[in-house]
Design a protein that fits this description.
Helix content is 56%, strand content 11%. The chain is mainly alpha-helical and 132 residues long.
Length: 132
Amino acid sequence: MSQGNIGVPLQVTEIDPEKLDVCTVLEVINRISGKWAIGILLEAIRGPVRFTELERAVEGISRRMLTLTLRNLERDGLLERTIYPTVPPRVEYEATAMAKELYQSLNGLLGWAEQHRDDIAAARVAYDAAAG
């Protein structure tokens, strides 16, 4: 098994369309395709990160949206929240092994998108021209 660029083993398997649970796939896609989730995950992949660091790193996010997105990512098992008993309390978020595996999959999708960028643009132009 090969290793990804962050040390997570890569496992490529074919998906049997008969066994594909569309609802599960849609849940995952909906969660990570939200406006803020990928930016937060990318910051957490780099190592433990604090709330204020995320607030600065993810441009345009409000405190409320950051809190909600962090809770959802933690609920889904993609982030781990650690509270340190200091005064004031220190809270850090870190990507889980599952999030690091997801990161590898997103890298594959990014590669596919970059490879087909020109084809997609040409298809859109052709479609728009035909649709008038």
